[in-house]
Amino acid sequence: MFDRVSTFPDWHNKPPVDRATSDLIYPSWIAGTWRVKSTLFDLVAPLAPEIVTPGFESNRDYVNQPIEFNVRFAEQSNGVIADRAFNGLNIARAYLGDRAVLSVKVDPDSPNKQITFLKGDRILTSTITGRATETPASNQFITSEIFQQIFRGSAQPYLNQVETTTAYNYSPNQITADQITAIYLSPQDPDYFKAGNTPVALYRYRLEFSPLNE
Question: How confident is the model at residue 77 (pLDDT cuts 50, 70, 90)?
Fold first, then answer.
């Protein structure tokens, strides 16, 4: 996966992942509550102008505009896991606004299914279907997750696949990360066979974590 990050944006396939069954286990050094500054610094539409996803051009407005939010990772008996409901709500509100996001819930039967309830009876359901992790060194952690997303709120539900690959680096009292989000078309999309396994949009973020004392 380190090679995957270094070859951005020359991506033509999805990463090799295993089926996601249990939750993602993080290294112990990420446990706690953090203030995150997320900065989008690059975006690419590999198949433009033939195929461009909705909202891609408007996302250029976010380039080099830091967005901040809190995230939390909790120690459990099986290791450190993300507080997905807490993190999902804070991240969604940071990007969309407090009033636009009503709540975020995680399926009690599966930590890999998350539902975001938005204003105007709109619902975004994200289900993690595949995952891979790598630990190049004791202070480094790389993870890739593949999501199936369904957005309901219009006459026709919108489906796509999303990959998030994140390379974390830990140093005392600080974590930095290089995060890439890739958007793939779902088989229901009329352009699916044109795109194949090439992402139709790539977004690259710089994440800076500062510890919060609770």
Answer: confident
**What pTM was estimated for this model as a whole?**
0.91
Sign of CA dihedral 27, 88, 39, 178: positive
> Is residue 135 helix, strand or coil?
coil
Terminal-to-terminal C-alpha distance of the chain: 34
Listed by start position, the domains of the chain span: 2-212
Quick check: 132 and 16 in contact, CB under 8 A? yes
85-103 b/e (C-beta count within 10 Å ≥ 16 → b)? bbbbbbbbbbeeeeeebbe
CA distance 74 to 210: 16
pLDDT given at position 214: 58
Strand-pairing partners, residue 78, are none
